[in-house]
Write a structure and sequence with these properties.
alpha/beta; Spore Coat Polysaccharide Biosynthesis Protein SpsA, Chain A; globular
């Protein structure tokens, strides 16, 4: 008997800084549906500072599913942090030669995780897809209503993928509100609602501080945002790091969350209210 073979492979792509903790959750949540996880790490942060190799291969990873890319050369000297971010993202595209034209290429930040059941019988009707996620900050069950729905994971077939950075930056839900005359706005987009979770800044105080000092949003590297004192205060207050007046809401950790988190509460108790 010939087994069923899926027509389109699902290829999950991320750029990686240092959060093995979140990748483990991503892997455990999606491993049943994803054919390949592509992890692209740079030796340098987006400001050009050496950070080294941080990704850790765990013994329970299926080595046949993991495609790890390591950029060991410095970013060009004349580029800024946003251009370096784009270079790292599109390094992934240069290394997708194993993918077929009909395969689905998903791109996310590591803390954006789609629901695995969404991928059962998944079919993209438009050129691009956007997964709208529930947003949680600091704790797995600290809900952020101000940035929900969060435009997280994007998907496209390999044959239509020209730039991962373009897909991330320019394929936006708001484009659908523009007139058809605005040919400069990509509108061939399908939205997937309530499609997963954005677990933002579920990190230690020190890790959040490092993130703010090194990622592309340089405006948040100042001490008034990135100091340990400020971060601790904002987490205790359940409020926004960036002084936008956002307050977050504690919710019950129930079956609407990833099973791996729900079934391992003791392991993740530090980040559960």
């Amino acid at each position: 008997m010939i087994g069923f073979m899926k027509k389109n492979k699902f290829i999950d792509c991320i750029t990686f800084f240092d959060n093995n903790f979140m990748f483990d959750i991503r892997y455990k949540t999606l491993e049943s549906q994803i054919d390949y996880f592509v992890i692209c790490e740079s030796k340098f942060d987006h400001k050009g500072h050496v950070k080294g190799k941080k990704f850790i291969f765990k013994e329970y990873f299926d080595q046949n599913k993991i495609k790890y890319l390591y950029m060991d050369k410095p970013f060009p000297k004349n580029t800024n942090r946003w251009e370096n971010q784009a270079i790292q993202r599109d390094f992934i595209l240069k290394n997708l030669d194993f993918a077929n034209s009909e395969d689905y290429i998903f791109f996310s930040d590591p803390d954006e995780i789609i629901k695995p059941e969404i991928l059962i019988n998944f079919e993209l009707q438009n050129k691009y897809g956007i997964f709208l996620l529930k947003c949680f900050n600091y704790k797995f069950n600290l809900f952020n209503p101000h940035e929900t729905p969060w435009e997280g994971t994007k998907v496209v077939k390999k044959k239509n993928l020209k730039s991962i950075d373009f897909m991330r930056q320019k394929v936006l839900a708001k484009n659908l509100k523009y007139s058809f005359l605005r040919i400069d706005k990509e509108k061939n987009i399908q939205l997937f609602e309530n499609a997963g979770w954005h677990f933002n800044n579920i990190l230690t105080y020190e890790e959040i501080s490092l993130k703010l000092k090194t990622f592309a949003h340089d405006e948040f590297s100042a001490d008034r945002f990135s100091s340990l004192e400020n971060i601790k205060k904002k987490i205790e207050m359940k409020s926004d790091l960036y002084n936008r007046g956002h307050n977050y809401i504690e919710v019950k950790l129930d079956d609407s969350f990833p099973k791996y988190i729900v079934n391992n509460r003791s392991k993740f108790k530090k980040f559960i209210l």
